[in-house]
């Protein structure tokens, strides 16, 4: 599973509603969506695509915790959390190294010139329990 991260500020900038940093133009956002569409389609064509989903902005999240035995629901976004899971892609490929190669293509994700991110850009790659890529313990 390839895990992609972002922040509420990232979602706001891409959607053009950012108040504290330059908003992306509609053309910039379209370039990002076209890049991701091609990335996914290439995986479909290679037979390695299993599933992919983007997640809504952190402002739409809810966190459930337990306090004194009672569930407590907190609406997002969460000030203490800078990054959240923005989406994921599941691939079925020959090896963990191949999954890493696939994820590395995301390093060329387009963004506006001079755009800033809240955190250093990265994705995580994790084998799914029971998959061929799961490491032996």
Tell me about this structure:
The protein is of the alpha+beta class. It contains 3 helices and 6 strands. Helix content is 28%, strand content 25%. The strands form 2 sheets. The protein has a 4-stranded antiparallel beta sheet with strand order 2-5-1-6. It is flat and about 45 Å long.
Task: Give the radius of gyration.
Answer: 17 Å
State the share of residues found in helices, binned by percent: 25-40%
Strand order of the largest sheet: 2-5-1-6
The major pleated sheet works out as: 4 strands, antiparallel
N→C terminal distance:
19 Å
Unreliable stretches, pLDDT < 50, 5 or more residues? none
- Mean pLDDT over the full residue set: 86
Task: Classify the secondary structure makeup into a structural class.
Answer: alpha+beta
Order of helices and strands: EHHEEEEHE
Total strands: the figure is 6
